[in-house]
Design brief:
Helices cover about 55% and strands about 10% of the residues. It is of the alpha+beta class. Helix 3 packs antiparallel against helix 8 and helix 5 packs antiparallel against helix 6.
Length: about 575
């Protein structure tokens, strides 16, 4: 790449010399993989991490389930041991059961994944490169099966380890309570899944704030009630004058339609492709190589008005700016402030293939991305140049834009039957395509966060419910010696909410570290926004509290007599 860049730079220097060009001319080389996927890589890494977090929470829940079943089946394992089963046999049984559960989940999940992937690939609302080619291929299936196997083994490790730590006499006991080690393990797993869910919730909340802020940015133009039509004639023209007559006729015929409010032409629309030219103020004391790098836009008389790009000073292009008139241009505020900090830019000259007079200054337009503020831009009248080929025709009307297409297609066909006339879109589509990667990331991360919250609540409910079942005698004794049902409710809730509090603290710490990764993906949102952290901690606490409340309320319904008579 370095060698290619050097070669292209040498070619650029020779080219500048051959045409006596005084502006800036160069080349930049970058891998095509970066051009296609570079901007999406951070988002996909975040989504991958979110998927792994959800998988980890699911594994934690399954581990808790199997550990609870292991405690409930201690007598069964004691009988197996008495009949000659060794520890390795019990471990193999625990791992087999976990693998069967994981395999059953994968068997149900793979068809769903195939359907979801096919549906996602068919969507046209996300501007993700090569998304339409995405499919569940053999490699994806192999990875899924491998992860399923690892998940199944991981879920069975803790119950298997617990079996190796339990003697036969302990297994044969009739006590209903689990051992201290098993209780600590289950509580630790609940804390871990609450922490993971909290981290995901904060990350999703920050991305949602960022997406909302992105939709509120000032675009510099008005996309509503406008559509764009690609006018790219398959023929060649003998002169620039012939080409401008051709396109002027197209504009006049479309504008003659009864609903046509405004019609304009441009070689490139906002949020599309870009090229740069080097320019400088004609009276600037700087050397040419220190001049400004600008984005040129080739437009007709009505484009700026049609796009509703606001005029700051001077005037728009009009009928005075003909091919025979002195060259004129309109620049944006950024370029005006850069080249003439101490005077009005209108009336000044810019050196670009001779000299061009500035007749107006307009507002900045976000031409690159919604996240980037407008760069240095200049608008050149297409009647006064020839550096363009096909053009984008922008049509603005109060009528629904979709109803305009048949009439415009008829006009274009009548003007030139060989002209392709099927490529058109609403300007709102430009915005939709620009925010599509963020929308996809935000929606998927929000879905994973909601799933993680649900799984964490279910896991917490299972642990507290199991704990209430194991402590039936204890709770019955408390009620028998005078404890109120409110005291019992508070006792159970305190145990569950303690786990939640620890998990939330760890989750907020993890989220604080996660925001360092998310920082490059945020726009208009603070990475350490206290409202996002506190709000999601509160939501998680409320949901977890509701999950604890159901088994806690059931604990208050324990009949002391029945509890004392139970084994």
């Amino acid at each position: 790449m370095r060698q290619a860049e050097q070669d292209l730079q040498s070619i650029s220097e020779r080219f500048k010399t051959s045409i006596n060009y005084q502006g800036t001319l160069g080349a930049r080389v970058s891998p095509i993989d970066d051009a296609l996927r570079g901007t999406f890589r951070p988002a996909f890494l975040v989504l991958t991490a979110a998927v792994l977090c959800v998988l980890a929470i699911a594994c934690v829940n399954l581990s808790n389930l199997l550990l609870g079943r292991t405690n409930a089946r201690r007598q069964e394992f004691a009988v197996r041991t008495a009949l000659g089963a060794r520890t390795r046999h019990l471990i193999a049984q625990a791992l087999t059961e976990s693998l069967l559960l994981a395999g059953a989940g994968a068997a149900a999940g793979i068809p769903l994944a195939v359907w979801a992937t096919s549906a996602l690939a068919g969507l046209q609302t996300f501007g993700v490169p090569l998304l339409q080619n995405t499919a569940v291929d053999p490699m994806a299936l192999a990875v899924t099966i491998g992860l399923t196997t690892l998940a199944g083994i991981g879920c069975g490790v803790l119950p298997a380890w617990h079996l190796t730590r339990t003697s036969g006499s302990e297994q044969a006991t009739h006590q209903r309570s689990a051992g201290r080690g098993a209780t600590l393990a289950r509580n630790g797993l609940v804390v871990a899944e609450v922490a993971l869910a909290c981290t995901l919730l904060v990350g999703a909340s920050l991305l949602l704030q960022s997406f909302s802020a992105l939709l509120k940015v000032d675009l510099g133009f008005e996309p509503q009630h406008a559509m764009a039509w690609r006018v790219d004639p398959p023929r060649s023209f003998d002169s620039p004058a012939e080409a401008t007559l051709y396109f002027d006729a197209v504009v006049d015929k479309v504008k003659a339609l009864p609903w046509g409010e405004s019609v304009g032409l441009s070689d490139v629309l906002p949020l599309g492709r870009n090229r740069t030219w080097g320019v400088r103020a004609q009276d600037s004391p700087h050397q040419p190589e220190t001049g400004a790098s600008v984005f040129p836009r080739i437009v007709d008389h009505a484009y700026l008005q049609t796009m509703q790009i606001p005029l700051v000073s001077g005037r728009y292009f009009d009928a005075r700016d003909t091919a025979d008139a002195p060259p004129t241009m309109v620049i944006n505020e950024n370029l005006a402030q850069l080249l003439w900090t101490d005077r009005d830019a209108v009336g000044q000259m810019i050196t670009q293939d001779g000299g061009t007079r500035v007749i107006g200054v307009v507002g900045n337009v976000r031409h690159g991305t919604l996240e980037e503020a407008g760069g240095n831009e200049m608008y050149l009248n297409y009647h006064q140049g020839s550096d363009w080929a096909g053009l984008e025709m922008v049509v603005r009307s109060a009528r629904p834009t979709t109803s305009l297409a048949p009439e415009i297609r008829t006009v274009l066909a009548a003007h030139d039957p060989s002209l392709p006339n099927g490529e058109y879109y609403e300007l709102d589509t430009l915005i939709d395509n620009a925010v599509a990667p963020r929308l996809l990331t935000t929606q998927l991360l929000g879905f994973f966060s909601a799933l993680a919250l649900t799984l964490a609540a279910l896991g917490l409910y299972g642990v507290i419910s199991n704990s209430v079942g194991q402590r039936t005698q204890e709770l019955g004794i408390r009620l028998a010696i005078g404890a109120s049902r409110t005291n019992v409710l508070g006792l159970v809730l305190k145990g569950g909410m303690t786990l939640v509090a620890i998990g939330v603290v760890l989750g907020l710490t993890g989220a604080f570290l996660l925001t360092r990764v998310l920082n490059s993906m945020l726009f208009g949102a603070t990475a350490h926004d206290p409202l996002a952290f506190a709000g999601n901690a509160l939501v998680l606490t409320l949901v977890a509290g509701a999950a604890c409340l159901i088994p806690a309320w059931r604990a208050t319904r324990v009949n002391p007599i029945t509890a004392l008579r139970s084994d």
